[in-house]
TrEMBL record:
The keyword Glycosyltransferase belongs to this UniProt entry's keyword annotation: yes
Record field: catalytic activity: a 3'-hydro-2'-hydroxy-beta-oxodihydrochalcone + UDP-alpha-D-glucose = a 3'-(beta-D-glucopyranosyl)-2'-hydroxy-beta-oxodihydrochalcone + UDP + H(+)
This protein's name: Glycosyltransferase
Origin species: Triticum turgidum subsp. durum
Keywords of the record: Glycosyltransferase, Transferase
GO MF annotations, alphabetized: 2-hydroxyflavanone C-glucosyltransferase activity; UDP-glucosyltransferase activity
Enzyme Commission number: 2.4.1.-
């Protein structure tokens, strides 16, 4: 990790400190925002508050690449207080890191004051504990929401829903001015009031109205209902400004050493016909059961289409132990040779999605993946697995970016999706020109460029410590 990232040197004014929580789904949009704000057009000094060691090695590699490729973005080390994780046996390692960071919020005051911060952009997962610290310092505090605006509207409304529900089980949630989010789409944890995630989610939802503004990695045509309802006070009266700054521009850091597998799959993708390859990835956060992986293998093989599949069978980073052939079934890799690429390594998804040969993205609908698909005009076959992903899949289906097979199960539900169903759906969506054309409408080359979305649609003017939305 380079020491040049230390924020002690003189920084241009204003100095915006960005505070991501944990996990690539949070770090990626924060680093995109960091690079954009530090670009000459914005001219902000930018520091990223960084907790080391990170939970996953993907995060540490990403941070290292960010700080070495973009020296204008400084590292501000955030040392956490001691945290005893045994209080939460079996909890998700990323939620534990959220909690450890939340409990260390009082340490942020001196850190931000010492760094000469003039504004703070915090992560949603930390919002309720960080906003009061910023207020105390007189620092404007914005929240970058890393999921869909539909999910933001749920986060904002959910505390009121629980208050009205008086301890009853969580059912369908009607978000005022937005739409009804069905019980089945509510993140698993939110059905359990004592769950660590739920406690954080409710606390954050209650405090958000005190932020100076919300930045969402979305755009108005993609989520018209949720963005309008938050802005016009339908979800909650007096909610701060919501700035749609998405899709945030991807940043590629040319790694000094490209990953071992990268040359192989990029070369292979470049050699395939246009729109012929199905890209399959379920993100960086969750594992898929081995039985379900086998069915997916059967489905991809039976679809008859070419595919690039990123396999993930453990929660943090990739599984170095299990061999692919053991995971996917005897003879699978041999049978699909030439037509299917399978990797357990990290792939450069932004580069993959730009390839002409990609025709469909089977995605878990992590919000970054959804916005990356939209930016590339690529249809999505949504297979949400966990957390906010069904809410995001709802956006995919409503907007027309892709299709969502709602009967497909997710974590905690009985039932395996059979290889046969997967094959049928893949064949149907690959053959569906309407879906393909609709997805292409979202392509950024047909719209304002990503950078422009930040620079023109929405002027985040930290120089005057105010945010404006041009009429
Ligand atoms: N990603 C990647 N390579 C991988 C897996 C993920 O580049 O092998 C990136 C992906 O492009 C996205 C982020 O990691 O920007 C994952 O965020 P997302 O919100 O899609 O899902 P999460 O991993 O948080 O579930
Ligand atoms: N989230 C939220 N309120 C919170 C914490 C998280 O609305 O208090 C959102 C957050 O934007 C995230 C989603 O809920 O995208 C799921 O959270 P998690 O961190 O588990 O998922 P990840 O983004 O890492 O895949």
């Amino acid at each position: 990790m380079p020491t040049s990232g230390d924020a002690s040197g003189a920084l241009p004014h204003p100095h915006v400190v960005l505070l991501p929580s944990a996990g690539m789904g949070h770090l990626v949009p924060f680093s995109r925002l960091a690079v954009s704000l530090s670009s000459s057009d914005h001219g902000c000094g930018v520091s990223v508050a960084t907790v080391l060691p990170t939970v996953s090695s993907a995060e540490s590699a990403h941070l290292e690449a960010l700080f070495s490729a973009c020296p204008a973005v400084r590292r501000l080390d955030f040392h956490l207080a001691r945290f005893d994780a045994s209080e939460f046996p079996g909890a998700d390692p990323f939620f534990l890191r959220f909690e450890a960071m939340r409990r260390s919020a009082p340490l942020l005051g001196p850190l931000l004051a010492g760094a000469g911060a003039s504004a703070l952009v915090t992560d949603i997962a930390l919002a309720s504990v960080v906003i009061p610290v910023a207020k105390e310092l007189g620092l404007p505090c914005y929240v970058l929401f890393t999921a869909s605006t539909a999910m933001l509207s749920l986060c904002v409304h959910f505390p009121a829903y629980l208050d009205a529900n008086a301890g009853g089980p969580v059912g369908d949630v009607d978000v005022p001015g937005v739409y009804r989010i069905s019980k089945a789409s509510i993140p698993q944890a939110l059905h359990h009031p004592e769950h660590l995630f739920t406690r954080q989610f409710v606390a954050n939802g209650r405090e958000l109205a005190k932020a100076d503004g919300l930045l969402v990695n979305s755009f108005d045509e993609f989520e018209p209902e949720a963005i309008a309802a938050l802005r016009d006070g339908s979800v909650v009266a007096g909610f701060p400004n919501v700035f749609s700054v998405g899709p945030l521009a991807p940043v590629s850091f040319s790694a000094s050493e490209p990953a071992e597998n990268q040359a192989d799959y990029m070369q292979w993708l470049a050699a395939q016909p246009a729109r012929s390859v199905v890209y399959v990835s379920f993100g960086s956060r969750k594992a898929i059961s081995k039985d379900q992986l086998r069915e997916l293998a059967v489905g991809l093989e039976a679809s008859g289409h070419r595919f690039l599949w990123v396999v993930k069978s453990t929660v943090v980073d990739r599984d170095d132990e299990a061999e692919l052939s053991e995971l996917l079934g005897e003879g699978f890799l041999e049978r699909v040779q030439g037509r299917g690429m399978v990797t357990k390594g990290w792939v450069e998804q932004e580069e993959v999605l730009k390839q002409e040969s990609i025709g469909l993205f089977i995605s878990h609908c992590g919000w970054n993946s959804v916005t990356e698909a939209a930016a590339n005009g690529l249809p999505v076959l949504a297979w949400p697995r966990f957390g906010d992903q069904r809410v995001n899949a709802g956006v995919v289906a409503r907007s027309g970016l892709g299709v969502w097979e709602e009967r497909w199960s997710w974590e905690g539900e009985e039932g395996m999706v059979s290889g046969e169903s997967i094959a049928e759906k893949v064949k149907a969506v690959m053959a569906d020109e309407t879906v393909r054309n609709k997805a292409r409408d979202f392509c950024l080359s047909n719209r304002l460029s990503q950078m422009d979305a930040l620079q023109h649609d929405c002027v985040v003017d930290f120089a005057e410590l105010k945010v404006e939305y041009p009429s």
